[in-house]
Amino acid sequence: MGEPTVRTRQLGGELRRAREESKLKIEEAAARLSWTPSKVSRIEKGILGVKPADLDALMDTVGVLDVAKREVLHSIARHGRQRGWWQTYRDIISPAYADLISLEDGAKSMRTYETTLIPGLLQTASYARATIDAIRMDSQPEDADALVAVRQARQSVLSRREPLELWAVIHEAALHPRVTTNPEMMREQLQSLLDRQRLPHVSIQVLPLDAPPHVGMSGAFAVLGFPETADLDVVLVESLTSALYVEDTAEVRRYGGAFERLRAAALPFDKSADLIARLKDSIQ
Question: How many CB atoms lie within 10 A of CB 89?
């Protein structure tokens, strides 16, 4: 199956907790199922996918009897088995990036805070190309073209029948033009933000430069929410060379609280839109 995804790890963790609550050792659960202990262990670690019939048998064995809970776990398992359009680009995107795209595809909501960049789901193609060229210092031109295509394709979650509910708090520093040789690129990007914020499922706020010290000074992050249960929400924290997924429920809630503080500290929607418009009009 390859590297475990966030969703397969979540499924395995839920099954492991149920087994432990039932006071069953892996060997005992495996014996009741006529499986090897290795199979149970690999499912719990998210290394091995699980078919619907096997999942039902495992839930019966470890005592997951609640109908709603069983459907949640089946939903997670289906998502973990899903192969999406992004698999076409597996040669140029990292497993962590593929995981993010998969999570966005299955999420109901995303709350994101950005410090120096426009959020990926709101980037224009030209802005995406400029940032990809700057961040991926060793990219070949054809790879950069493909990565721009991926970033644009990700935005389909905002136009599907049940669109992702996106709430973005963007630090004002990310909105100031820094590519003086191509002012039109930033003007187009800021206009795109104004257009997107008119959508009923997209909320954009700006955290002004003169905001007092705030929790967002620790860096950017995104909280992805899922329709099954809030206990399975995930936080993404990215760096130059890696992506960290925070899955612990208590830690995810702390990030949710941090986003609420940032939302409260940011400008209201109308004043955020006014600031974006002023910055766009100021570009020479």
Answer: 17
Residues 117 and 245 in one domain: yes
Domain span at residue 188 reads 91-122+153-282
Name the pTM for this structure. Answer: 0.81
Query: How many distinct structural domains can be found in the chain?
Result: 2
The rounded distance, in Å, linking the Cα atoms of 130 and 117 is 11
Q: Rounded to whole angstroms, how far apart are CA atoms 217 and 116?
A: 11
For residues 274 and 1, what is the distance between their CA atoms, to the nearest angstrom? Answer: 49
| b/e per residue 99-137 (b: at least 16 CB within 10 A) | bbbbbbbbbeebbbbbbebbbbbbbbebbbbbbbeeeee
User: Are 77 and 206 within one domain?
Assistant: no
Q: What is the pLDDT of residues 50-75, one digit of tens each?
A: 888 999 999 999 998 888 888 888 88
Sign, Cα dihedral of 189, 221, 140, 176: positive
Residues 98 and 72 in one domain: no
In the block, residue with structure tokens 């206990």: 231
**Residues 118 and 76 reside in one and the same domain:** no
- Name the token pair of 137: 């210092």
